[in-house]
Amino acid sequence: MKYRAFTKNNFDGIRAFNKLSPDQVHAIRVVSEVLPFKTNNYVVNELIDWDHFEDDPMFILNFPRKEMLEPEHFSKISWMIEKNTDRSELARYVHQVRISLNPHPAGQLEHNVPTLKGEKLTGIQHKYRETMLFFPSQGQTCHAYCTFCFRWPQFTGMSELKFAMKQANLLVDYLRVNPAITDILLTGGDPMVMKASVLERYIDTMLKADIPHLKTIRIGTKSLAFWPYRYLTDPDSQDILRVFRKITDRGINMAVMAHFSHQRELYTDAVSEAVKQIRRTGAQIRTQSPVLRHINDDPDVWATMWRRQVDMGMIPYYMFVARDTGAQAYFGVSLEQAHEIFTGAYKRVSGVCRTVRGPSMSTGPGKIRIEGIAEIRGEKVFVLNFIQGRNPDWVGKPFFAAYNPHAEWLDHLEPAFGEREFFYEEEYNRLIEEDLSEKENRRKSVAHF
Ligand SMILES: *Cc1c(COP(=O)(O)O)cnc(C)c1O
Ligand code: SF4
Q: Which residues are CB-neighbours of 97 under 8 A, at least 6 positions away?
């Protein structure tokens, strides 16, 4: 199957285009000025149910719609487009709207970018002791964009191979001096949009460095859901599988961290075959997704997904709470709902599916799981716990927030029992300040995000 992308400039080439009403087409044009819009022939032809597309989770996941913007923002952009407003004026307004949507949540841009010999390592984030994130510059786009996601691509015009080489060497230098790191997680965007030759350059550099403490290479990707042909019919599909095999042959865990949002993504022939091919290389596949209103805010969906994933040989890993960014007003569910959805699904699957953890918020201080809702000495509280902490010692110490049925994120929560702050806050603020003052000296170009 040959990959074909559809964006705001050519989506009238979609076969089902005539199903969209003029209002829907206009809404896509308006919203896609702000939120990224890209879909492809696999999503359009094999995942979306065009007979019921208006409520279809796959359609909602890929196609912008009016409700994803504030009414005020929508009407102003709509008006500007209709009036044929000057592009630069439109761009200025769009920028303003984006800023209002909190494009860089949880201090992603500012914190956790390490330095080595006084040089800031853009493209690397090291927040949790054992696991380092790496954003290969060629992997900062995706096969299709999720409407809830704000990580649009940051194209760099650099020569791919040369730049990969330079980045990979820095990465290896950093790994060498940080023996606590066991895992490297390649992320994006979607690293699997990279050519096999570029991926291989990174992997070869890491393998050649022969770092004894590097135990696991993970790749975070939505490709199994959005373009499983990546492992089947792309010109370099076999090379991709060969690179995975190369990693496992060296005794290093290769884990595909696959993003699946709905069971629909798990039933095509292409995805079944792709999963088989990947598993044959000795790689594991672990699955994760945020919980999203209009897409998967239903315990049935999660139970079905986990069951099906396990049947296919994948390992359920995370349920995330949707980040406080982009169209969260449209997609967000309350922490209480997230917890109910998680528990509702968890209790109806067998132990082999219960490898999953969640619902988890990826916040500045760490990954915080909602353990449950309890009543303690007459006060209704959320019981929370760190799955990962900026300080590893925070993990495994349950803490309590006053129950709030409307809270969708950590910053909507107050400590329970009239306490002034959560146990980690003072230390967290200190860590952040150290991080920032270090940065004052060499404030250069920003990291990817
Ligand atoms: C989630 C995450 C990781 C990986 O955490 P695991 O619990 O090991 O999967 C690493 N770094 C950051 C910044 C993360 O958000
Ligand atoms: S595939 Fe991942 S990075 Fe890409 S748009 Fe979807 S959520 Fe965002």
A: 34, 69, 73, 77
Q: How many domains would you assign to the chain? A: 1
Does residue 92 lie within any of the structural domains?
A: yes
- Residue 209, both tokens: 């460095």
Summarize pLDDT for 239-252 with one digit per residue, the tens.
999 999 999 999 99
For residue 147, tell me if it sits in a domain.
no
Beta strand 357-362 with 366-376 is: antiparallel
**Strand-pair category, 183-186 with 131-134:** parallel
Give the residue, 137 or 65, on which the prediction is more confident. Answer: 65
Domain of 43?
Answer: 5-100
Given this model, what pLDDT does residue 291 score? 98
From ligand 2's centre to the CA of 379, what distance in Å?
39
Using the mean position of ligand 2's atoms as its centre, give its distance from the Cα of residue 150 in Å: 8
- What are 133's strand-pairing partners? 125, 185
- List, as one string, the DSSP characters of 311-352: HHT-EEEEEEEPPSSTTHHHH---HHHHHHHHHHHHTTS-GG
Cβ contact 6:44 at 8 Å: yes
- Is 120 domain-assigned? no
Q: Which residues line ligand 2 (CB under 6 A)?
A: 142, 145-146, 149, 151, 188-190, 222, 259
State both tokens at 26: 């206009």
Looking at per-residue confidence, does 328 or 53 come out higher?
Answer: 53
Whether 405 is in a domain gets the answer no
